[in-house]
Predict the 3D structure of the following.
Amino acid sequence: MRVASARLSRDAPGRLGPLWTFLFRYGPPRWTEYVLKNWSGQRLVIAVPYLWLLIFFLVPFLIVLKISFAEFSPLGRPPYEPVFRWLEEGALQIKLLIGSYQYLLNEPLYVSSWLYSITVAFFSTVFCLMLGYPMAYAIARSSPTNRNVFLMLVILPFWTSFLLRVYAWIGLLKTDGVINNVLQALGIIQEPMSMMNTSFAVYIGIVYSYLPFMILPLYSNLEKHDLTLLEAASDLGAGPIRAFMRITLPLSMPGVVAGSLLVFIPAVGEYVIPSLLGRADQLMIARLLSDEFFLNRDWPKASAVAIAMLLLLVVPIMLFQHFQNKELQAQKR
Amino acid sequence: MKTQGLFSKTMLGFGFVFLYVPIISMIVYSFNDSRSVTVWNSVTSPTVKWYGKLFGDEQILSAARLSIRVAAMSASGAVVLGTLAGLVLSRFGPFKGRALLQGLTTAPLVMPEVITGLSMLLLFVSLEQLLRAVLGWQFDRGVATITIAHITFTMAYVTVVVQSRLASFDDSLEEAALDLGARPAQVFFRITVPLILPAILSGWLLAFTLSWDDLVVTQFVSGPGSNTLPMVIFSRVRLGVSPVVNALASLMVLVVALGVILSAVLMRRQEQRRKREEQMAASG
């Protein structure tokens, strides 16, 4: 840093002209170093992304929190009563209502869609793990050339449109769709099965869309394992299943947790998949939020749903961040 | 070892069938000459008439143009902000509020889209009120608000990519440049950026794809008249399967597949060249 500022003071007069020479006469410009190091350099660079995220990510949540305590007024623009209001005497009136939250807990429609969302997210995560773990394992243990091809095949669907991949399943699952046609032509079933607009279709859609998110963290974990541990285990008489259960599985737990969280958290709030493939009589929570907002224009209730969803997901999200940081720390070493 | 390998390899094969059958069937049926999409008309198929219809569909084409514009702007903004955030988090050491910044950059990765969308919209509504009251200035939701929302949730991905790239090498090169008299900004543009260029590029592509593909957040923050491609597709698909959408999807898969394969080939070539140079340096 000292060398840097020395260089700057040497060629600085050329840039700033007489003003600089004037200032320079009165001792070395200490403040240059200060500005360089503390303001124009670091602070500004920190400030730009920081401010952006504060304004566009943190402040919005505070607004949602505020509106979730407001009173719904169907004809207002915006359709809620102000929470903070300056009274004429100059006093600040704060009106916090917990009506929206009480509604969330008591209304059967809400309770059932909470339970349904969590159930769907949980079992989708389990199915993703059951399919993704062996896949990641096979990729991590294949030859380097094959490994790259397999990885590319896993990542490729991720780059294509999510919406269109969900759409592709409509053509397969419809009553006159590809699966029914093929099974009927083969004589396996007589009558077409109805698979669209069922929970089964939602599971298929979620597992299909989020499978890469399960495979990639698992793969990057499994790939780093020291295979001599398994050799040692087999030398000591452990069978392959025992060696897997006692060595590979425990070592891969960080990958399992990271992958599961990457599937579970977005699956709870999934909107597109249940809207296209799911049941019409059992909504997931994200759909309820969007209907409350767009159809009923009940902003306070929609905000309360969002806050409740965040509270539900805050533990998994913190866990995810914890693992993410650990991963970055590990890379550093 | 053997039975285990067999089981996992079977699952790998099954998994790839599961991943690719829907995409392949979608492409096959885009050449089907029948309105009902899933019943194969073997007399006149294959046909490219849906591709013709697609290029005459002004609604889809203008939505695609809007989406490309929004995605390019969002990706560029996200790359600038995400690279700065990644640099700050991995090179600036501990500073006040670092933990909060780290949290703010990783949270959008897992945040359910409806929450992000709702909160962004409520922010824009509040801003609208504020600006109208204070400046008397009226702004409409549209391309600008969509772009701001997309920058915010895609910059998280850029940050993670850049941060993990920066973590993979230490800062000795940067320090050397400083010692040789480069100013911090010079060091950043002449040393750091070239080193993390691959991460910046893949971050840009990732942000572009995510923005191009986003439906939920866009639905919340867009205004009347600014329909992006996913919004048009979603409203069509809700009415049922459409062969034009099949044709569009097939084209998008083709572009992505070509891009991914091309970049894989390029990366491999570069790798080989590097290895050859290393060998030559070692032997010479």
